[in-house]
Predict the structure of ATP-binding protein.
Amino acid sequence: MTPRSRALARRDAAGLLTAFGAPPARRALPAPTPHERVNRPCAPRRGPSRRGHGWAPVPAPLAVYRADTSEIGGLWPLLGAATVPAVGARIGYDALSGGAFYCHPVEWVLRGLVTNPNLVAFGEPGRGKSSTILAFLLRMTCFGVKALIAGDVKGEYTPVLRALGVEPIVLGAGHGTRLNALDLGPLRARWHQLSTTRQAEEVSAVVGRWVQLLVALAEAAGYTATPTDEMVLALVLRRLIGATDGTTDLRPVTLPDVHRLLAHPDRDLWTQARFADRRHLLDTTRAITDTLGNLIAGPLAGLFDDHTNFDLDWTAPLQSLDLERLAGRGDQAVAIALTLLGSWSALATDLREDGDLRLVLRDEVWRQMRLGLKAVQAVDADLRLSRRQQSIQVLVAHKPSDMLTVGAAGSAEVAIAKDLLSLCSTRILFGQSTRVADELADSLALGEREHQVVTGWAMERPGRALWKLEGRGVKVATVLSSVEKRIFDTNAQLRTPGGAGERP
Ligand SMILES: Nc1ncnc2c1ncn2[C@@H]1O[C@H](COP(=O)(O)OP(=O)(O)OP(=O)(O)O)[C@@H](O)[C@H]1O
Ligand SMILES: [Mg+2]
């Protein structure tokens, strides 16, 4: 034993406190009577309600003690260690340890805290889901991560983009903006930089994605496509894009082009697709042809059925498509737009530079899921591929059952939607009413304490949430900067003249 450790061994807690500061005042408790509990509380739950007493969110006038770590461990055995490594976006503070809370889902995967980098946030309206996710996106841009908001249904992110000097694309009434459902996205700009082999791979990937998109759109219109429909669609798309005639450039394709070739097939098409004659092809594909025809005349009219007439900056740190003005066209138009954007974002992710991390945010994801099985499968595929594609997928919804409105109980859609939860290792649970919290507790196996955090602590202020990283739960309060609060004030409408919050 060294002289120092011998000296330390001799000191007890009272001795240490005396050595490092004034000893705390002791108040002798009256001795318990024989039938009284020994561990009775000596103060009310929230402390005495007197000035300078009770629980205070400000530093209390505590004596400062200095000691080395071997002593501190004994004196403050309940001191919490940092729950997550200090890498990535600094979100706020961990309410239990008081330390800063950082989020970097990819680092979390690499360090074995979670198994995939996807996040899902649940919470009642107004609990701060979008604000927390936005703070996360903005702070991750400092690490070179680019974010795509795959459909801003409420137009909330537009002021944020403008503040960053990025002009968001606004779709819908009064803007004359058109987005081609079959847009090649960033592929067109990068096409000539790719090798011939890579070009062939990209064409196959794009055609495959478009077929799935058209099938999802047909499903939304009430028709379930057959394998033959899918095969013919793939042939049509390859022909239109120029993949079959050795062209060195990609030809832009629109939905009316696809419809036209299906409705007026030429000899090449019906022989390639192994039909007996033209009539045979027309009769077999009549349903998918008419469904696409109706879509062009219906909810997509003028919005998604012609060449894109704006330039989207795919290299911007944050990019978004504002769909607020689409609301007038009905839920289906919004859902279709979200599905299109999902397909776009997948294109952008496919073409990322090596090492680029991309964040894809789907706020109000349940709207897209309502389109049907194919739309759910599209989200599912993106979540499954996130690790390989170096993307972080972020879903936001009010409650788990929102995702299940896609189909009848026990259907394939519902089974996949339920699985989506397991594809998001990090679950951010904002305040919920007891009824929804029960549902959460069932689907996420929350313990009793965690249930109380969601229905109690998290309900007290916006931005408070229980972050579940696989089994581990952390109580985190998001701290927004004054600039973030100003540019992302989703209650702003309530403060406009005539609104409930108008000040005299
Ligand atoms: N951490 C925070 N600190 C202070 N204010 C916050 C915080 N988080 C959110 N708010 C405020 O609370 C309001 C609602 O936040 P937000 O729009 O993010 O909620 P939401 O859960 O996304 O709601 P909805 O479900 O309706 O989309 C906003 O005005 C926002 O500024
Ligand atoms: Mg929101």
Notes: DSSP finds 22 helices and eleven strands in the chain. Residues 499-504 have pLDDT under 50 and may be disordered. Residues 17 and 23 are 6 Å apart (CA to CA).
